[in-house]
Amino acid sequence: MPPKVNLQKCDGCRAESEALCVQICPGDLMALDENNGKAYCRSARDCWDCMSCVKACPNGAIETRLPYQLGYYPAKLIPLVGSNKISWTVVDIHGKVERFTFKNRND
Amino acid sequence: MAAKLPAKLEEVGEVRLETDILIIGAGNAGCYAAIEAKRRRPDLRVTLMEKAHIDRSGCLASGMDAINTYIKKNETVENLVRWSRAQAGGLLREDLTITMAELLNQAIEEWEEWGLPIKKDENGEYLARGRWDIAIQGSEMKVILAEKVREYGCEVLNRVVATNYLLDGDRVIGAMGFGVRDGKFYIIKAGATIVATGGAAGLYKPYTNDGVDSHHQIWYCPFNVGTGYAMGIRAGAEMTTFEMRWCAVRTKDFNGPIDTISVGYKAPMINAKGEKILAERYAHMGGDASPRFVRANAPMEEWLAGRGPCYVDTRHMTPEQVKTLKIDYLNERPSFVLFLAARGQDITREPIEVYGSDPYIVGGHTASGYWIDVKRATTLPGLFACGDVAGGVPNKFVGGCAAEGMLAARGAVEYLESLADRGQVDESLVAAEKARVYAPAIRQVREGDGVIPREMEERLQRLMDEYAGGVHQFYRMNRERLEYALKHLAILKDQTRYLVAHDLHELMEAHEIIDRLDVAEVLVHHLLFREETRWPGWQNRVDFPERDDTRFDCFVNSRRNPQTGEIEVFTRPYEQIIPGDRYRP
């Protein structure tokens, strides 16, 4: 499943030795485009949709999209990562919004 | 920025390391092994070789919402063995299950101390989600574990792919591999070696693979490709029970976990006619508590009989329960919540559709893997195994893989302390492995033509799906189809010399398909040998549809002869320790 990179928000993690999404992807699927220095997924078909890159991105520039073959446009699932908790916003294809916040690490 | 591929073998840089304990694979089991080794002997150098990044590698990359085996206050190790034995159709290693179960709770409680939130009930006990399961909020559990590995002073080599063991005779003295970032060839010599590379996905074609974007829309971690099995097979290690494949009922089209719903919220499986399948058709097998292979087979039988699609019926759930359910999924597979949104589905009105997954080889769920002893020593001296790559212990799941990591570390430390010498590196074997590893890159430069890994992967997956009982064939197989599979596997193995790689990522993919072929070949030999149907759903021999206790109430094991490449298949007897009917919990 393809992570979609927002090119306005992605800065290629210039301050890092390696962009965080490139560092973290368990499938080695994220890379930086040599021309514009921004992240892209080298093989959408090989993505497991684990959302590690989405959670790791400091600029909130990556969104996981479902393959259209399996799920309709334009549903969204956006995390907001805190230090000991995480909040998720989900929007379904009818525009219905739900929010979930929970602890993901003991204090 | 990743290094360029070498055009000549002489250009390949080498990294030579010596360590005390080498752990291949820094997933759950590998991390626990590393921590336990350091706890036993802080003076030892402990090195983890990881093809991805330790923070998010292996099965726990996206998290987990439950630990499926924890021994609660009113339960015992013996009861766990009885339950697990019945779930596995009467076949498991009781000695290994007992030793795993004795450490199970410690591993889980430590994870909580390190930061993993485990839900509690009104009495302050872990919140039960079934007889053995407890509910957790584990979206960050792998990151928490990785931090602990670093804190204990273990050395982590991220983005280094293992390709083969370093051997001194049949003794394992480390491993070789290559860096996916630096392109260098790694030769790591070790006193003791622990393999923890997980199971094998991608042997079979998934039914979700239409179009270009959803090939990896599968349940098991698609980056676990069976490398640890393949390295053991090539080195002549004894393997067990590959024929006990793991096929599971998953949410249709997403391949998401289903126990979250069916166990966590008591949602019964129903067919298109609204009949409660397990309660009505499988009452004699235990109804909703039937063994997992029965549950995997049930919806497929309904489809074949014209009573599909099948569902888990969520229509009784309250809005509060739905919210908790979605939080569970956000902890384990967040994109399932996205999937429901992308279907615009309200699960209190429409039930969740279920279907069988593609088959996997996963020693944490079934009994497939290395044949080991209670110290987790494999049949190769110096090599220990834990987690999904280790055989004999089905239903160990997350907690059991962690516990087994600890056991493997103890075995490895004890072995290291008994060593008189650390063995000799045979440089001719190193040179041969280096040539084998970089061959697809060199071929691309020299020939500029050949087979890319993806083509070969898809050929393998199509072959296995159609001839070795894949999901499109409702897991069914017979001797003639399996022999056809073997014939074409031999062709594919010969064709690996035509593989080409254009970059280091593709070089990794080349070795992933080479490894999958070795695993698939052994798997088909196991499927051929067991001329019975012991686990319909996991292993359906349509030419031998009944269970045959006179011939097959035993383990089916195999060993590939490293000199000839011949795969010998043989049996090992069952040894019962805990009394009772092995088919009843």
UniProtKB/TrEMBL annotation, chain A:
InterPro entries: 4Fe4S_Fe-S-bd, 4Fe4S_Fe_S_CS. One of its GO terms (molecular function) is iron-sulfur cluster binding. Keywords: Iron, Iron-sulfur, Metal-binding. Residues 1-35, 37-67 form the 4Fe-4S ferredoxin-type domain. It holds the Pfam family Fer4_7. Coiled coil: none annotated. This is 4Fe-4S ferredoxin. It comes from Desulfofundulus salinus. The lineage of its organism: Bacteria, Bacillati, Bacillota, Clostridia, Eubacteriales.
TrEMBL record, chain B:
Residues 458-573 form the Fumarate reductase/succinate dehydrogenase flavoprotein-like C-terminal domain. InterPro entries: FAD-dep_OxRdtase_2_FAD-bd, FAD/NAD-bd_sf, Fum_R/Succ_DH_flav-like_C_sf, Fum_Rdtase/Succ_DH_flav-like_C, SdhA/FrdA/AprA, Succ_DH/fumarate_Rdtase_cat_sf. Residues 20-393 form the FAD-dependent oxidoreductase 2 FAD-binding domain. The keyword Nuclease does not apply. PANTHER family: BLR3196 PROTEIN (PTHR11632:SF73), SUCCINATE DEHYDROGENASE 2 FLAVOPROTEIN SUBUNIT (PTHR11632). GO terms for biological process: anaerobic respiration. NCBIfam families: PRK06854.1-2. GO terms for molecular function: electron transfer activity; flavin adenine dinucleotide binding; steroid dehydrogenase activity, acting on the CH-CH group of donors; succinate dehydrogenase activity. One of its GO terms (cellular component) is plasma membrane. The keyword DNA-binding does not apply. SUPFAM superfamilies: FAD/NAD(P)-binding domain, Succinate dehydrogenase/fumarate reductase flavoprotein C-terminal domain, Succinate dehydrogenase/fumarate reductase flavoprotein, catalytic domain. Gene3D superfamilies: FAD/NAD(P)-binding domain, Fumarate reductase/succinate dehydrogenase flavoprotein-like, C-terminal domain, Succinate dehydrogenase/fumarate reductase flavoprotein, catalytic domain. Keywords: Flavoprotein, Oxidoreductase. The active site is at R292 (proton acceptor). This is Dissimilatory adenylylsulfate reductase alpha subunit. It comes from the Bacteria.
